[in-house]
Task: inverse folding
């Protein structure tokens, strides 16, 4: 059966409360729409692991620190609903006025996981993510919530949100889904020209090659930075190697049990992020 489309918070909370009262497990997949195979993998996993699936589709204005990005963000609700098909029971697609009848007052302090990388590059971004995800958790009270690992730091921030606000939902991280050329799937990929789309695949290719470097953190950093610099279409925003839990920079593999690389590259005005595990 096709999903019910809900636009009001009241209808959302009633539906979720009824499902809980009936003893059903609830899975939530928060999205901003413009769905691709990455989102669909989260939705299918939620479908497999829960009795009832809620998908939210809301381009959250308060997490955009760049107005051009907000304006250009693709809005494709009809196609999103078609792609979801019967993999969700409820699609929550509210207006901005429904979610924010007044500017949100929530001010979070997510601490050190939120101050580095995306948090440093995009002031206010994680607070805006916390605002919408916190409200969704409050309205739906899901047993399980699904997030893609392309936004690895976002997952760390959301875990901190859950801890600070004492939500009971389990956070389920899901692996990055890639285009056949290796580019991490992202709604922003639609803004790339066909040529840029092919060039962008080199981000992942360079990261994969960097895992084969015989050396410590400085050698890997130098390799990635110089390979990215060789591609004229790329402007590197940052490449950081960090502890996979605290997200703090490491200068040597000896400093952390798990080490990951986090990259942000501009192609023209499009900002792409990706990550890779080293240890
Ligand atoms: O990852 C996203 O698409 C967004 O940050 C999220 C979690 C849906 C909140 O708006």
Result:
């Amino acid at each position: 059966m096709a999903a019910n489309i809900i636009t009001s918070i009241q209808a959302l909370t009633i539906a979720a409360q009824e499902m809980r009262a009936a003893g059903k497990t609830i899975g939530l997949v928060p999205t901003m729409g413009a769905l691709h195979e990455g989102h669909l993998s989260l939705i299918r996993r939620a479908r497999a692991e829960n009795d009832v699936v809620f998908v939210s589709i809301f381009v959250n204005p308060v997490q955009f620190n760049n107005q051009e990005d907000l304006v250009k963000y693709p809005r494709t609700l009809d196609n999103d609903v078609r792609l979801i098909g019967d993999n969700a029971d409820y699609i929550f697609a509210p207006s901005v006025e429904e979610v924010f009848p007044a500017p949100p007052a929530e001010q979070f302090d997510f601490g050190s996981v939120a101050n580095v990388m995306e948090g440093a590059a995009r002031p206010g971004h994680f607070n805006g993510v916390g605002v919408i995800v916190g409200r969704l958790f409050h309205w739906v009270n899901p047993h399980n919530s699904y997030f893609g690992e392309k936004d690895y730091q976002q997952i760390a921030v959301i875990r901190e949100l859950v801890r600070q606000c004492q939500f009971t939902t389990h956070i389920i991280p899901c692996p990055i889904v890639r285009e056949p050329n290796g580019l991490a799937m992202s709604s922003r990929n639609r803004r790339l020209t066909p040529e840029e789309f092919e060039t962008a695949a080199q981000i992942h290719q360079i990261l994969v090659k960097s895992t084969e470097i015989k050396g410590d953190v400085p050698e890997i950093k130098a390799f990635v930075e110089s390979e990215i610099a060789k591609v004229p279409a790329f402007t590197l925003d940052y490449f950081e190697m960090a502890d996979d839990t605290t997200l703090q920079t490491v200068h040597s593999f000896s400093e952390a049990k798990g080490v990951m690389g986090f990259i942000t590259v501009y192609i023209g005005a499009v900002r792409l992020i990706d990550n890779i595990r080293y240890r």
